[in-house]
Design a protein that fits this description.
alpha/beta, TIM Barrel, eight-stranded parallel beta barrel, globular, binds (3S,4R)-3-hydroxy-2-oxopiperidin-4-yl beta-D-xylopyranoside
Length: 367
């Protein structure tokens, strides 16, 4: 009798734990809840998501994220379409969305060589570029003063070897433009956190360039609050050692460290990084998983995410935020970059808005 009860009890516990696991599934689990004592959890939002067009995706966002970065709507091409015309409509909607759903907004981005307004190409004179630069930062940072939590003030100013990228800003304004951008942002929005953001800046040479840049800004008496490591990494090759070294070295400068655009590429690609101007042709081998992700790849993706989050948790006192570049695999930019029209699987939610094995591994670290 005793043995029977014991067995029954045993089954009960087993059934119960199964049930809770299933019951927790996407209903009760939440990334932002799981990591609330560790770091903020963010996502990039596109226009369609800001406008709450898809209720299921909207639920995922509200349930899982406490901070968001506009995927495109606050880039200069969209906010500043003509020399003297600004269009704040979508950015304002994002701010409203954030207020409504208790999601802080990280503005992205004030100064970037890409997605610039078309009129910039017509400008030749240094003075006009300086006027654009100054007016853009003052007007945009001023407009969102008190409305956004932080800004990626300068994005992707470095080459892979740590030297400064030969952008229109470097050419026309000289190398002090980065410090100047932070100074202008600080004046326009004194209580907003100000960050430098880049890809591959966990790699030693680029990291060294990034460290110089932070030091230069600080030595000029200008405020910089954090460094964003974008985190566009590759399956089976997440550079954990370099990431750890970077977290330590950046935070030793007295700035916050963030992973700002996390995704893990599972499709073939012969270069690393996220230079949006780098594009490749479609070949027969470039899109292998149109009918679904093979189990082995799915598992590897889950293991990669788990190892990364383990490392980030180890340094939770230094890492203030982890932001994914998109919500579900369906809306990832990696479906169209660097090759258009691929079926990619870089995020934690699948095309049916369901959590993937990677999601359970990541959240499992906190259970
Ligand atoms: C990407 C967006 O996701 C795409 O929709 C857009 O077409 C190009 O830009 N680094 C950045 C982001 O800082 O702004 C880029 O976002 C991805 C690389």
């Amino acid at each position: 009798m005793k043995i029977k009860t014991f067995i029954l009890l045993g089954w009960g516990v087993l059934l119960f734990s199964n049930f809770t696991y299933q019951g927790q599934d996407s209903e009760a689990l939440s990334l932002k809840e799981a990591f609330k004592n560790d770091f903020a959890i963010g996502t990039a939002l596109n226009s369609w998501q800001i406008e709450e067009r898809n209720p299921a995706v909207n639920e995922l966002i509200i349930q899982n994220f406490n901070v968001a970065t506009p995927e495109n709507v606050m880039k200069s091409a969209l906010l500043h379409p003509k020399w003297d015309t600004y269009d704040f409509r979508m950015g304002d909607k994002l701010v409203e969305y954030g207020n409504k759903h208790h999601i802080k907004i990280n503005g992205h981005t004030l100064i970037w060589h890409s997605q610039l307004p078309a009129f910039i190409r017509q400008i030749q004179s240094k003075d006009s570029i300086r006027t654009f630069f100054t007016d853009h930062i003052k007007t945009v940072a001023g407009h969102y003063k008190g409305q956004v939590f932080s800004w990626d003030v300068v994005n992707e100013a470095l080459n892979e070897d740590g030297t400064l990228r030969n952008s229109v800003f470097l050419q026309k304004l000289g190398e002090d433009y980065i410090t100047e951008a932070f100074r202008l942002a600080q004046e326009a929005t004194p209580n907003t956190e100000l960050y430098y953001n880049d890809y591959n800046n966990e790699q030693p040479a680029k990291r060294a360039g990034c460290i110089n840049l932070v030091k230069k800004i600080k030595n000029a008496g200008v405020r910089i609050d954090g460094v964003g490591i974008q985190g566009h990494w590759h399956l089976g090759k997440v550079p954990l050692k370099d990431i750890e070294e970077s977290i330590l070295q950046y935070s030793a400068l007295g700035v916050k460290v963030m992973i700002t655009e996390l995704d893990i590429e599972v499709l073939p690609r012969n270069f690393q990084g996220a230079d949006v101007n780098q594009r490749l042709a479609n070949t027969s081998e470039s899109n292998p998983y149109t009918n679904g992700l093979p189990d082995t790849v799915q598992q590897q993706l889950a293991n990669d995410y788990e190892a990364l989050f383990k490392l980030l948790l180890k340094h939770k006192d230094k890492v203030s935020r982890v932001t994914f570049w998109g919500v579900t695999d369906a809306d990832s930019w990696l479906n169209n970059w660097p090759i258009r029209g691929r079926t990619n699987y870089p995020l934690l939610f699948d095309r049916n808005n369901q959590p993937k094995p990677a999601y359970f591994k990541v959240i499992g670290l906190k259970q």
